[in-house]
Description:
The protein is built from ten helices and eleven strands. It is an alpha/beta fold and 275 residues long. The strands form two sheets. A seven-stranded parallel beta sheet has the order 7-6-5-10-8-11-9. Strands 1-4-2-3 form a four-stranded mixed beta sheet, sandwiched between helices.
Amino acid sequence: MVISWAMSERSLIRSRHNPLVWRLRELKSRGATENLVLIEGVRLIEEALAAGVEIVETAAAPRVERTERGRSLLRMLATLGHSVRYLDDGVIASIADVETSQGVLALSRRPMFDENQAFDGNPLVIAAVAIQNPGNVGALLRTAEAAGATGVYLTRGCADPCSWKAIRGAMGSAFRLPHFQATDAGALLRRFHSRGLAILTAVAADGRRYDRCDFTRPAALFLGNEGAGLPEEVLAAADERIMVPTKPPVESLNVAVAAGVLLFEAARQRRGRGN
């Protein structure tokens, strides 16, 4: 194994019982805390640093230094005053969640956002109601940012957007797109009404075709999980119910896929209006 000259200044952690290893493994198994998030891979750590997210602690396998991109990341961390603890390949692989780990993990602070960011300009805000799958939550954040949504609210019962799988699915969007935890859908309805937003609800049937809906107005789009859908309280408050027609016998789309169809239609309409 080739180790850089700087390795002589460090001790390589080989024990899976080391306190740092325990902290990383526990955060992976229990999920993000109120303050800390576990990030894996060179790209995601680069994305976190670019978004101004505070890195608390970094662990890397020596092989990270063998690639230019890995060395660049380590130099960037050093420039920002972050020390890196070095773990044996087998130890870091025991924590990683992918078959071929990139060999670097970081603990960061949870990203924080100013709520006013979600209502700047002509807002298009997403309200995710009880979406429990972390992969879907991550994909929803990524899709929302790509399509130009201004923010995402997640009600109680949603997967944590900063959990291990959601962070990976969001591919950096969780660090940039304003997102907020909410108590319930009723509280969100009151908040959005006070901001003058139209309430749009995604439904599987008995709604207006998505390409006939006006997405150019300031709006909040409510999305529910595939099983339960949206609460009756939200459906009753809707200014418009929107559906994506599907070919039978398919009755509905995965929530992240449906969000992509709706949000990119919104983006198309908004470009046409100069928004």
